[in-house]
Amino acid sequence: MTPPGEEAGAITQLLSAGAELFQADSPIDQLNIHLVGFHPMKEDPYHQMDVHHFCHQVNEDFAQCALWDGDTAQSNLNGIEYIISERLFEGLPEQEKQYWHPHNFEILSGQLVAPGLPPAADLALMRGKMNSYGKTWHTWLTGGGTRPGDGLPLGEARLAWSFNAAGELEPALLEARERMLDIDTQQRRVERSELVELAHPQRGVDALAQFFPDRHKPEGVVDDGEATPIEMDPQEQP
Questions:
Q1: According to the model, what pLDDT value does residue 27 have?
Q2: What is the rounded distance in angstroms from the CA atom of residue 106 to the CA atom of residue 83?
Q3: How many domains does the chain fold into?
Q4: Distance of alpha carbon 3 from alpha carbon 152, whole angstroms
Q5: Is residue 10 situated within a structural domain?
Q6: Which band of pLDDT confidence, cut at 50, 70 and 90, is reported for residue 144?
Q7: Cα 144 to Cα 146: distance, rounded to the nearest angstrom
Q8: Where is this region: Disordered (predicted)?
Q9: Whole-angstrom Cα distance, residue 171 to residue 161?
């Protein structure tokens, strides 16, 4: 998707070159982790797209990402995502938790990838994201997925969600991503199988279940509403 507008003139190009030379751009320099995944819109989950995340891991519990519809100089900035650990998520107010999607299925299924990383580094990165949550707003629907895009950022920002079961993601999107990045998703799934034992039940796993009646959740992907409550000894109960 190319937004409308006249080609940058000589003065604009000169100003851009000067800014690059003389102005600090350290916040952008920090976006050094490249992840590629898929997002459905929470209120319209048949609207799906592949998304390039360029992220900065601020600390062990918090990362922030700029979202793009590609990884070339012509790509469009189309959203933001914040990623928090399970610990920070559990401390959120209940009303706030509805905006945060779980990540375990994305990781265990191989849908979330870090292009170019060797297998050991990929596994370490994904291990660190197990049980985490993301809050994602798409500010521009630029296309490249199951719906045509808008020429400009229009309307309100849309809350995106995660896929949490087989049978939710449009197969053509995954096939296109595999061809584009030369990635074998099944192989990624096998390489990450040892991470299943780290998976905890997560809030929001079944948020889109009504839209995908034939979905199938693999081992390790459990909605926290399905988790078996811990039996307490009567003497230990408050």
A1: 81
A2: 13
A3: 1
A4: 6
A5: no
A6: confident
A7: 7
A8: 212-238
A9: 17
Which pLDDT score is estimated for 94? 95
Tokens of 207: 């948020």
The pLDDT value recorded for residue 86 is 97
State both tokens at 225. Answer: 């509403």
- The answer to the question of residue 200 being in a domain is yes
Token pair recorded at residue 183? 């990635």
- Quote the percentage of the chain above a pLDDT of 70: 84
Name the residue among 123, 128, 121 with its Cα closest to residue 110. 123
Per the CB < 8 A criterion, the answer to whether 159 and 134 are in contact is no
**pTM summary value:** 0.86
- Residue 120 amino acid letter: A
The CA distance from 37 to 50, in Å, is 6
Asked whether residue 4 is assigned to any structural domain, the reply reads no
Residue 87 counted as domain residue: yes
Q: Which residue reads 């040892």 in tokens? A: 194
Compute the C-alpha angle 218/106/55, nearest 5°.
Answer: 165
Cβ neighbourhood burial of 143 (10 Å; 0-12, 13-18, 19+)? middle
Kind and range of the H or E run holding 60: none
- Quote the CA–CA distance of 238 and 175 in Å, as a whole number: 53
Which residue range is the domain that position 160 belongs to? Answer: 30-208
Which residue type is seen at 4?
P
Give 117's DSSP letter: -
Contacts of residue 89, Cβ cutoff 8 Å, sequence gap at least 6: 97, 100, 132, 133, 203
